[in-house]
């Protein structure tokens, strides 16, 4: 029994030495900001399901920005965001509409499935039509969002210095192929695409067709993190964690071998970027959205911090607004 105990202690000591962050040099750099949907109207995540109309449960507005608009993205970039996340749908007239919802009924004055509606029709809609913070007594954004749903091409053109994480909302492989063709004809836009994620079929098709591009879907994330939890204590990084974007919900982060510094060093050596989110629970994962949430960001963290409140988190991380002032915040 003594020999067994001694062997066990040796194994535990070796595992500790291999994985402790106390003996790992933190990767150089500061946290980077990933602004989910730009700067936008936020809502309570409690009891939100896939079919919940979140525009009908926004908090009282603190600003005039609507998600996935060029104004909201510019505002996030002006406040220090390094990457802006946006959502796309490939329309029948072969354009990428930048809009979150699968259908139009919640946020707009239109109806129907977003991807089945021509961009020419989407351009006529008021994307602020359905927002209310008081159960429908008032609709503060009605009339202010008409014509404000952009195409992906318009985003790239209007914000040439921005970087974007593109979320495919469907499982249509042709979306990935279409994005690859778009970037082939406009190579100047390639540097603006930080990565892709979402539907597995379009995500994997884009990654297949665009060498060097990073991205993830549910399956690749589970493969990376699941295998790393299983044998990452050895120092071996699973192939699924190489040259990719690694999503880490902050409540699961302590389960990762060597979190934070040793894990970060291993992923950096594997050519991957870490994106730290808020706690995962139910169908949704929250962001790092308040001063209290920043306690979830490790000291010396140099990855990306996913936030729904770039306007709040950016100054807390030492970012300063650009000299330009966006008009939408003064309306």
UniProtKB/TrEMBL annotation:
One of its GO terms (molecular function) is phosphoric diester hydrolase activity. It comes from the Bacteria. GO terms for biological process: lipid metabolic process. Residues 31-317 form the GP-PDE domain. Pfam families: GDPD (PF03009). InterPro entries: GP_PDE_dom (IPR030395), PLC-like_Pdiesterase_TIM-brl (IPR017946). CDD domains: GDPD_GDE4_like_1 (cd08613). PANTHER family: GLYCEROPHOSPHORYL DIESTER PHOSPHODIESTERASE, GP-PDE DOMAIN-CONTAINING PROTEIN. This is Glycerophosphodiester phosphodiesterase. It comes from Sinorhizobium saheli. The lineage of its organism: Bacteria, Pseudomonadati, Pseudomonadota, Alphaproteobacteria, Hyphomicrobiales.
